[in-house]
Structure formats: C-alpha cells, structure tokens
Design a protein that fits this description.
Keywords: ATP-binding, Helicase, Hydrolase, Nucleotide-binding. The chain is α/β, with parallel strands linked by helices. It is built from 15 helices and 29 strands. A hairpin with a 6-residue loop joins strand 23 and strand 24. Helix 1 packs across helix 2 and helix 2 crosses helix 3.
C-alpha cells in the first residue's frame, strides 16, 4: 500500500471533480519523476467500473502494472512484448499496439481509459490510439478518457488541450483533450526536494553547429543532414567525449544522446569498452533489456542511444546527461533531461551537458510566443473585456509598473451555468481589415472574416509614398459632427487633424440599414478605443456624442481626384509593426511632400 504525496492526492481529486461534471477527454500534467504511475494506480483502485491503462512501450505498461499490484490488487496485462494477453480483469494495463491489433478482445465495457504519455495521441483518426478510443467509445458512449503527460504539447500542433483549469485558453482550435484539469510545475518538485536539481552547461567545450539544418515538413530533422554536420566536425566528437568522461569521473550513470546511428557508433568507440553500451532502434528486444538491466545495476556506466530512451526508461541513478543532437521540440528536450531528475541514494544533482546548441528552458518552457529579448519577463495583464489575468512577456520599470507587454489576444474564456464556453478573444493588438473592418491577429495575411488580403502598415506607407498622386499625413486627432446631407438624410462627418495643421474630411451616410452596418464595421470597429465595451449606436448624434471613445489613426493616405484630395486609407497601430527609426524616416518623408493648390 502506498501513501500518496500531497500533489498526487490533489491530482486524483482534480480528475474526480472534473469527471463528475464533464465527459470530455481531459489531461493531467505531472513532470517526469512526479510519480504518474501512483496517480494511475490510485485512480484505477477507486474506480467503480473497469479501467484500461494504455501506454506506447512495454516498459511503461510493466511499470504502471507493478505500482497497481503494489496495492495488493491484481491487474491484467495485454502486451505482446511482455508475453501476456489478459483482457478480462477489472483493470487492464496494455500497449496500444497490442490492443489495436486485437480489438475483438475488448468487447466488454470500460468506464475509464487512462493514456500514459498522452502527448503521443495524434489528431489522425486512423492512428492506433484514435482507433482504440473510437472502439471503446462505441462500446460505451459515456467512456471517460484521461491523459497523463509531463509534456502537454506535440510537435507541429502545439498544446494538446484547449482549456486550462486556471481559466486560460491554450489554443483557439479544438483539441481531442478539451481540458487540463491539473498541472504541477517542475519547480514545485525541486523546491520540495522531490526531484534532483539539474545544472545545464551550454556548449561546455566544443559544440556541433546544427543551426543551418532545416526541418522537414513534419518538423523533424533529416538523418542525412545531421550526418553531414557531424562529418564536417571530425575533431569535435573526440574532444567532446573526452570532456564527458572527465566530468563523469565522479558520476554514477551517464546517458549520451547521439544525433544518428553512425554518430552513436563513433561515440561508443571512444568510450571505455567494458563500461559502455549502445542502444538504437534496431537493437533486438532481449539484448536491449539485458543492456538496460546492466546499466541499472551499474555494471555499465555509459549508455549511448539514438532517440529510443526518452520515455518509459527509469534509471534513477543517472546523474550526467550529454546531449549531442538537436532536439526538435521542448517536449523532447524535457524528456531527455528528465531521465536524470529522479532521486537516488548518493545523488546530489544531475549535470546536463548540451553540445548541440538547444535553447529550451527546462524549468519554464516557452510554448507559443518566444521570449522577445533578455530584458523581458512574465507580466500579468488583466483583460479589459473579461477580467482574466493574462501572462505575457513584457517589461517593468524599476518600481514594478508595467511599461509594455507583447500579448496579442486574451487567453481567457467564459463559461455559463450549463457549461457552455466562449473564448474571450479580445485582441490587445489587431490588424484591421480595410474591407469589412474585422480585427485580425497582427501576423494574419488574410482577413478571417472576408478573406481580404491584409497588408502591413509599413508596406502600405512605402507603397503610398511611391505614388505621385498620394498624400501621406501623420494624424494627431479627429472630431465628429452629426448633420444632414442636401436631401435631409442623416450623416456623420469625420474630420482628421494632421500634424501640420491640415484637415481632411470623410462623410458617412446613415440613411439605410446597409449604410449603418457599414459605419459600424469600417469606422466604429477600427476607431473604437475601448473595444471591450460594445458600441452599436448608428445615430449620427449618438456617435458624435461618444467622440471620446474613438481614436485617430496614426497615418491617413489621400489620393488626388481632379482638384481635390480624397481619403483612401487609414493606418493604425504603426508601433506594432515599425521601429521608431523607421517611423521617423517615414514621417520625414511624408513632411517632404508638397501639397497641391487644392481645397482639402
């Protein structure tokens, strides 16, 4: 019988609380070394119905099964690699490959499906995981699906879930796993002494330059490209391994992650023969098991591998990890480093030697927007629309007040009493569509609403300045006047005041439904300062009375027609796209333009 650590109990409670209210698939995030197997065992023990626990490697199947039977209970194993196919126990631990080949053996109903290392579950409906899930759901439509992982993100996809228990939106796109119901930061385990501290040394002596190696369309590196980099640095490997062995003198167990099979063989040849072994994808199962066992028993000191010992491998005594390959994702980097973070007698820390220039932060992985510069830090920015406290990169002054932040869109969502959710979606920075007025992400190239091409402000300014019949003016203010046209129909007159004292006008007719929709989309939405407060009035007098809620554009572009200048384009939020130097240059260029003798 086990006694759960407080955070493990909290994880179990979080899962139970969620599934009492929801049936959608959920994720619990626990760092490597946090004891996911114990959480799985406890959930399986207290479950009222049958439980199936899936993993992608036999080592995890065996490990999870052993923890469950540590309660004095009996669980089945369904794994060809372990030579057992037992599918009728109340709790079954299985490899996904074995189950997908024998779906007929799982015709009885399960109430809970637990997926270990669930970041491996893809969107592809034809994948092994999704076929197993679909089969189990066809037997029991009310099946609860829980995923556990230390790295809740997937290469090429990003976050594997959509909503976080803190009320944060991770992605606006739907995911198979809807919610993260529990997350424990790795820093908590280190602070409480549940993990071994890691010391990362970046390029301690010599390193491989993988910076010019590009990834394939699916996000991975080509082996031939990696081979070329290693081959072009023939002196690097011997010197690197010499330094690894120097650091390893006072270490218990050393894992070396090589770039390719040939590279791994070269590394192995430089290590002490009686203390070293190599495991690659083609290593036969029995030989692999024997080598891993010898390493765990400290009969071997060095274990070289190529992408095969990142998950499901548990050797707590490992206290030195040498990374001689680029890592495609923060997920893989964390999995590699995680091999050395478990506690073990006589182990004080784990040394991580990175010889490949990987730039990931083990303790605070950057998923989504990367850190803009070294002076940036995480800041809290409340959303003016929903009140959610966003975490963005930003800068504070000496007194701790926010100077600026780099957030684009609110990460919060709203949920009603029926559980229906609506993503806030408020944009702190937006690119407005000239055609329909919709606000878009500042990196968007086409409008999400009308598919109109979106042009960056700097390009708009450069193109306008090239035209002989165009006038570019820096705008400093605007004023609104309600009135009527010569047919006594209502209209709104907008006057733009420029930095050189020139005024330019535009008129919005407001007689028809189409004209009212047009002014809301093309004037109100782009000009509204407090976009979180809806503005739906279309009466000219009411719009003019709310003049304080409307902002002037940074630039206006006018084109000459006959003797007159007509406003053709308004450009907002130039600071989000242009440096100050670039902006000053454009302003100087605009001031150099000469007005024609015309009535503005």
């Amino acid at each position: 019988m086990y006694t759960l650590r407080p955070y493990q109990s909290d994880a179990v409670k979080g899962v139970l609380h969620y599934f009492r209210r929801h049936s959608t698939p959920a994720v619990a995030v626990l760092p490597t070394g946090a004891g996911k197997s114990l959480v799985i065992a406890e959930l399986a023990r207290i479950a009222k119905g049958r439980v199936l626990v899936l993993a992608h490697v036999k080592e995890l199947v065996e490990q999870n099964h052993a923890k469950y039977e540590g309660y004095g209970l009996t669980g089945g194993i369904f794994s060809a690699g372990l030579g057992r196919k037992e599918s009728h126990e109340k709790v079954v631990f299985a490899s996904v490959q074995s189950v997908v080949r024998n779906l007929e053996a799982f015709a009885d109903q399960f109430s809970l499906l637990v997926i270990d290392e669930c970041h491996r579950v893809p969107d592809n409906q034809d994948s092994s995981y999704r076929r197993v899930i679909s089969h189990l759901q066809s037997v029991n439509a009310g099946l609860k699906v829980l995923g556990l992982t230390a790295t809740p993100y997937r290469l090429g996809q990003g976050w594997i879930y959509q909503y976080h228990t803190s009320g944060k939106v991770r992605t606006t796109e739907a995911r198979f796993f809807r919610d993260c119901v529990f997350e424990l930061p790795i820093s908590h385990l280190l602070d409480e002494g549940f993990l071994t501290p890691a010391h990362v040394l970046d390029a301690p002596l010599l390193s491989y330059d993988f910076s010019q190696v590009s990834r394939t369309a699916n996000g991975y590196y080509r082996e031939a490209d990696l081979e070329k980099v290693v081959a072009n640095a023939p002196r690097a490997t011997p010197q690197i391994i010499e330094q690894v062995m120097s650091y390893a003198k006072q270490r218990q167990g050393v894992m070396i992650f090589a770039a390719t099979v040939n590279h791994a063989k070269e590394v192995l040849a430089l290590l002490p023969p009686q203390e070293s072994a190599l495991i690659i994808g083609d290593t036969p199962g029995p030989e692999r098991d024997a080598l891993i066992q010898a390493f765990k028993q400290k009969q071997l000191k060095y274990l070289v591998n190529v992408s095969v010992l990142t998950t499901g491998f548990d050797a707590p005594h490992v206290d030195l990890i040498a990374i001689l390959r680029p890592t495609e994702s923060v997920s893989l980097y964390q999995q590699i480093a995680g091999r050395g973070l478990r506690l073990s007698p006589g182990k004080k820390d784990c040394l991580i030697l990175d010889y490949a220039g990987n730039v990931y932060d083990l303790y605070q992985p950057e998923i989504g927007m990367p850190k803009p510069d070294s002076d940036s830090e995480l800041v809290t920015v409340p959303c003016p629309a929903c009140g959610f406290n966003n975490s963005f990169w930003g800068k504070l002054d000496d007194n701790g007040f926010l100077i600026e932040h780099y957030g684009r869109q609110c990460q919060g969502y709203l949920e009603d009493d029926d559980g229906e959710r609506e993503i806030c979606g408020y944009r702190f920075r937006a690119k407005f569509c000239d055609e329909c007025g919709a606000d878009n992400d500042i990196a968007a190239r086409r409008c999400h609403q009308c598919d109109n091409p979106l042009v960056d402000p700097d390009k708009k300014l450069r193109e306008a300045l090239k035209l002989k019949d165009a006038l570019v003016m820096a705008c400093v203010d605007l004023s609104l006047t309600a009135g009527k046209n010569r047919y006594q129909k209502p209209q709104l007159k907008v006057t733009y005041h420029t930095s050189d004292g020139t005024d330019l006008h535009e008129v919005w007719p407001l007689a028809t439904k189409k004209q009212k929709q047009d002014v809301l989309a093309r004037f109100v939405r782009p000009h509204l300062i407090d976009r979180h407060r809806p503005f739906t009035d279309t009466a000219a007098t009411k719009i003019a009375a709310a003049q304080h809620r409307f902002r002037a554009p940074d630039f206006i572009v006018a084109r000459k027609q006959g003797r007159f200048w007509h406003l053709r384009q308004k450009i907002f939020d130039v600071d989000d796209f242009l440096s100050q130097d670039r902006l000053d240059a454009l302003l100087a260029q605009s001031r150099g333009q000469q007005f024609a003798d015309a009535d503005l």
